[in-house]
Amino acid sequence: MTSYDLQLGILVVMDDFGNGLPVAYMFINCKSMEIYSVFVSCVKKRAGLITPKVFMSDDEPAFYLAWCSVMGPVPHKLLCRGTYHRTG
Questions:
Q1: Domains of the chain by residue range
Q2: If both were cysteines, with which of 4, 24, 49, 87 could 11 make a disulfide (CB 3.0 to 4.6 Å apart)?
Q3: What is the pTM of this model?
């Protein structure tokens, strides 16, 4: 969160060496499947259909559901532990 009540969402992909590379980002002021679907649709429009074997996100199901609705189902879903801190 920022002082403007915005959150930063980042789409990260893993390269051939196992390194995470940020490829897209969004600033949002609410978490909803509809908002995430717009973001994923923009990614699809720019990069085409992406079919990962693994999807990792925090415990918020809206982003995963948006991904699946736009890009299709992902065989494996992993839960990551958030390391962000809210201040203020």
A1: 7-79
A2: 24
A3: 0.79
